[in-house]
């Protein structure tokens, strides 16, 4: 006979975050020159709000970047002595992991030098928020004690460098969060879902990148911007309000909002649609980091806390949305 489940679920909290930003940072003019793009700094800023972005070098793999972000999250949580073994599970989210034979989480575990349960989440730009929800549920059932949720992207690998509609937006980096049990709930239930019928609005062919398959069609990411924008504006505010309801809070209770850093114009429009009070601090990390898909939310949280350390311990609304089309939102108490 199987052992019975525990009667009471354990609450979870986001204990710490860590980030890794690639060493190479390009401003708009540098990017345009590097790829002979017919664009300008003024054009890019007007349409996206982006000024700079980080681009990974060959030595900055997804595994490397994800492990460095995870190490920083562990160190900030005070687990320096225990190292990688402080966590017993690694959950990785990415849409630019191209090796289908093994999970990115396994590679991060190997890079850290530890031994963990590992698995990946395929939810594109909503990946980190989906990962937080899964970690919350795994903590609740006492399956694991401490879970590293990692978002890592090399979007420069899957974006056509000569396409100014995508190459000026997407960038590289990694962010991680350590989720542990808590006395009281500090990660609210997620509002999440997928609208598969609209998936072609942001899509990449399942083929390898064109450099690895020169005889086949390009496998770069394609985006139908205006239609995607309308989907976001119709979907994300509803998901955000549902997440607030599930957490039992109102917008007045929030101190910060971290939206997926798609582009700054979209962030501004979503903030207006949510009707946030003036005291709520909104992340605009996309201006300096670009759109890093699954890494964007943890990178933005890391930057927000660096600029506003007083937000530690306060409530924030997190949202992710993108390819799939998948969305997720939840309320968390910031570490």
From TrEMBL:
Residues in Beta-ketoacyl-[acyl-carrier-protein] synthase III C-terminal domain copies: 244-333
Coiled-coil blocks: none
Alphabetized Pfam families for the sequence: ACP_syn_III, ACP_syn_III_C
Molecular function GO terms recorded: beta-ketoacyl-acyl-carrier-protein synthase III activity
Keywords: Acyltransferase, Cytoplasm, Transferase
Domain Beta-ketoacyl-[acyl-carrier-protein] synthase III N-terminal: 119-196
Protein name: Beta-ketoacyl-ACP synthase 3
Matches recorded under CDD domains: KAS_III (cd00830)
InterPro entries assigned: ACP_syn_III_C, ACP_syn_III_N, Thiolase-like
Source organism of the structure: Streptomyces monticola
Entry EC no(s): 2.3.1.180
SUPFAM superfamilies: Thiolase-like (SSF53901)
